[in-house]
User: Fold this.
Amino acid sequence: MIGGLFIYNHKGEVLISRVYRDDIGKGPFPNCFHKVGCTESYRMRNAVDAFRVNVIHARQQVRSPVTNIARTSFFHVKRSNIWLAAVTKQNVNAAMVFEFLYKMCDVMTAYFGKISEENIKNNFVLIYELLDEILDFGYPQNSETGALKTFITQTGIKSQSKEEQSQITSQVTGQIGWRREGIKYRRNELFLDVLESVNLLMSPQGQVLSAHVSGRVVMKSYLSGMPECKFGMNDKIVIDKQGKGGATEEQSIAIDDCTFHQCVRLSKFDAERSISFIPPDGECELMRYRTTKDIILPFRVIPLVREVGRTKLEVKVVIKSNFKPSLLAQKIEVRIPTPLNTSGVQVICMKGKAKYKASENAIVWKIKRMAGMKESQISAEIELLPTNDKKKWARPPISMNFEVPFAPSGLKVRYLKVFEPKLNYSDHDVIKWVRYIGRSGIYETRC
Amino acid sequence: MTDSKYFTTTKKGEIFELKAELNSDKKEKKKEAVKKVIASMTVGKDVSALFPDVVNCMQTDNLELKKLVYLYLMNYAKSQPDMAIMAVNTFVKDCEDANPLIRALAVRTMGCIRVDKITEYLCEPLRKCLKDEDPYVRKTAAVCVAKLHDINAQLVEDQGFLDTLKDLISDSNPMVVANAVAALSEIAESHPNSNLLDLNPQSINKLLTALNECTEWGQIFILDCLANYTPRDDRESQSICERVTPRLSHANSAVVLSAVKVLMKFMEMLPKDLDYYSTLLKKLAPPLVTLLSAEPELQYVALRNINLIVQKRPEILKHEMKVFFVKYNDPIYVKLEKLDIMIRLASQANIAQVLAELKEYATEVDVDFVRKAVRAIGRCAIKVEQSAERCVSTLLDLIQTKVNYVVQEAIVVIKDIFRKYPNKYESVIATLCENLDSLDEPEARAAMIWIVGEYAERIDNADELLESFLEGFHDESTQVQLQLLTAIVKLFLKKPTETQELVQQVLSLATQDSDNPDLRDRGYIYWRLLSTDPVAAKEVVLAEKPLISEETDLIEPTLLEELICHIGTLASVYHKPPSAFVEGSRGVMHKRLPARTGSGESTESPDVGAAGGSAPEAAPSIIPSQGDLLGDLLNLDMAPPTTSGPPPPSTGMQMGGMDLLGGGLDSLMGDESEPLGGDIGGSPAMGAGFGAAPAVMPASLNAPVGGGLGDLFDLGGVGMPMGAYIPPKIVWLPAMKAKGLEISGTFARRAGVIQMELILTNKAMSVMTDFAIQFNRNSFGLAPAGPLQVLTPLGPNQTIEVSLPLSTVGPVMKMDPLNNLQVAVKNNIDVFYFSCQYPISMLFVEDGKMERQVFLATWKDIPNDNESQFQIKDCHLNSDAASSKLQGSNIFTIAKRTVEGQDMLYMSIKLSNGIWVLAELRVQAGNPNYTISLKCRAPEVSQCVFQCYEAVLKN
Assistant:
């Protein structure tokens, strides 16, 4: 299991170091010189230094998130310029270690916001306390923020009554570790966001090389008690199973795969394909899904690049919006890469604003809003400096960003029912909001 | 709150100040001080001197302060064991606290203090906590057992904690179960043979129930533990699989991967014809694809695992090629792994797409990635034959880009394509040669040199090209040097006339001017090979190359099986067994996939036997490198070449294989490519050729190359064959004995057919008709191949010549003498019997020329007892004439050498029944008596063979 966890700043200085197992100190690590016979805690620093020397200060780009130095394995993730590294000497579950590191980041963010050197230094006592709680002898323990916040508060827990204490412990260890009992709201309300990112890779000729939607259903719930919820969507398998009885006009979608928050009863989903759960209080990501069939591609990019001699490029890009005219896409941005030896760019666009950004080696064309079934165009002349560089310009793809008010996968929420048998509110009393947002993921057209 | 200030105190005398603050009366100040201490500890300052002062702060109501002190204790207790004892009382007290959080905190911290004295005190509180009413305390205590075991395993066993831990597997709280499973699994790992976990259907059932209820981490512990279980039969296996599959929809990738591990393992036991089996296969693909939308680090772990899964069960992801297409902003480690999987999934169905992608990648920025993409194009060509042409043209396009590393990588892969599809794409060689100058990496240079050497005959200026490399021979890397040496030797063997100097130059560079033993040895071997036996050299150096395998980098099947059992873990990321990177006894236990069981009627499928599953079972053929060939050569009993100079000359000729190789064959002649004998007319140059050879011989000892050359040019000079020897006809059956029928005849071998030539004379008064002939069983199974063709009646005093083709497929019986044949001839008058003897040379077949090496080996192999020596007297032929004469009767000369004026001819004969006879004929100039030694596994034939020699040579 995890032998130790270190947090470094970008310079490789240690901000947090928590060692769970002695074995990780036993080098010998190359490039780390320490006095012979130094104390235990000092030997532990060998591992700390080994990571700094071999990974953070490494000359080349990081070639793997897992590094083995002197039979010691280092897993790292980076958040802005903070490095989190888990260290082990054993054959641990690698996927689990990374999942834990992400979770650790989530927990820290939930407690003190952005993960930055400043925030970590300001909260180091809290972080140690968290690390003590969510990782025991290197085994990840309950790391749901909702539960943790009930007893790791930085104010001491002396004040708690005996009842509260046992409530905490049963929640931390219990079957519903993500929700505490006795939550009360005057107004029972829930918000569902269907957030999709649509990914596309298109050939210059307009052929779809790959396209998929990865979607998330995010739920914000302010419900009293321990509400039993049931979520329904236009899943093809469910609709087909219900057969002719249901509304047939409803478009159903084929979901390639989906994963659920741990509150969802997976065995029930496996057997009946119904999604039932007791939600955590507040915000949670209920499910993630992926579809590849019948995706509505909101925009089509048609590039035309012509090399005029060795020192000039002509670029013309047309974008077409492909959705109901009544809907509006927002935050549209087209990024047209330019060669490194660009000396000047002249742009003409029909709509929006376009600028050549030398520092990003790209022409960025922004359009605030665009209705469906419209078309717009940009043309640019790129002057190039003559170079004797033999290497051809790699022509990175043209990428696009946008936001549309529908789900490109076609997913529709059919219902979300709430039952709370112990309290006197019914499904009808709950105010429910549903919103669909489709965003561009990696939406690229090669040119 | 600005705790960051604690990081900035770097004043001198800091420790002293801290000490004062720690002993302050004010609680706030104390807490501040402890925080400072912890901050110092974090950045690596030694604050162990403050131990007693910090421990004094332990007795506090403030939980935050308490936790800080505990943190300090965990860090320094081991360096101050005596002081640490001071803390014990507080711990023990805290273990009894009313607040379960404090009880758990105490037992958790105590387990982290690795001091023997403290662990003794830990036992009692731990025992209580394991049975605590609060699940939070129990789950903490469960892990504490593992901690204690790590410090003092004996103590844990003596105190009976293991049993308590086992009981916790049945706990009502799922998290307690999960932690107990984790602790037991870890303890069990260090006791490979203990039956600690004692997995049985009942306990498995409990685990599966807990699986539905515990946290994501707990699910991972339980799934990893389940993976170690081996179900009793396929039904149990299926029912576990059914209960594990819902986990594939979990948001936590580690849960998914651990579930995949369990399924991959238990699937082995399911009969393949089961519906459930194919359902399961289908269920596995989507979650694996979903893993690719996780964060990049997890994608990397997933891809490394998918790489294994694809090798084990290619069918799972065969339709999912697209998801492995590289995205522009994937981190490089994800890109490289995706590329690997793309190659594995490439097939005829998707090759067009894959190639289009690979071509894109080859224009990217990252050098490693581009190289790998180019290499992947080559792999595709080799894997999917239909795509080879497109791959080659893609590679040529890439070469045109003139991007240095792309060109080099392309040349390396084109070499492999040439190997795989010989005589198909060599037209591109010209393009490759254009880029010769830009190659600066050893591998590419070596590949190019290989191509030039291999196709020397097609490249007009091959010698110039290789010569240009030779100029900087000593600056090249070993790889290039070795390849250059081989290539020039190849060139020489192909175009001997123009390249003598070159080969001599490279041999001397390799043997005399190099310090590299590999190079020197290879140089000597070539040198010696060329000088002793250029024909053999040709066979060795230009040997047909084994096929190149389709798949590369396949993980060896047993390792693959083991790694499948470690899906999700570091082993699967490194693609190495745990023993390769884990110290001590942990994880060294090798895991294996379960075998398919034979229980139940449904398992009677034909596949049951193949427990290996559907993985590519045929081990891919391995391409031996040039080095291997040389290795084999060296295994012959060859006198090791000395480094001081050319190999020592061997003298004289003794019997024995080693000598045969060492010196006996110095002046071997002939060449496979020009078959000796046949109907070719004699070559007038032949005599001269032979005359020259002995003269060159002595020189060859000092200048092996020159000597070798002399021999090479004498190729195929032997000839002047005559037809096979046919003995004169003799009377086999006198008329007196056969009522007037006289039969005389002989045997001949014409165009590979044995014929009995008969003259039938009717000396009687009446007409003879209805002739027929039959043979008695004989030594070599001779039998008439057709009826005796006497169509017209044979009148008195008439004579008829009949030729009867014989076959050698008749019944066999050993006769005495061996070549005796009993014949019965029937006509309208009677049946007559006679016996005759055929020359055994009738049975010598045309393909009796033995390979030289085989000859050597066979000669060595046949025991000396089987050797017989004969003298042939009064024969006035020289050795060459003898040789060609013998050749007419299918006695083939394989080699000739001259020692002290005596010519030695080595010959081979093959009988129609497959018996080989090896002969050594010694001809002394001016002495009419020849000596012949015959060696044969069936020594009985020797006498007959000798008679043939005599007959052939004297007529």
About this structure: The first strand of chain B starts at residue 730 and ends at 733. The CA atoms of residues 433 and 953 of chain B lie 56 Å apart. Chain B touches chain A through 123 residues (CB under 8 Å). The first helix of chain B runs from residue 14 to 22.
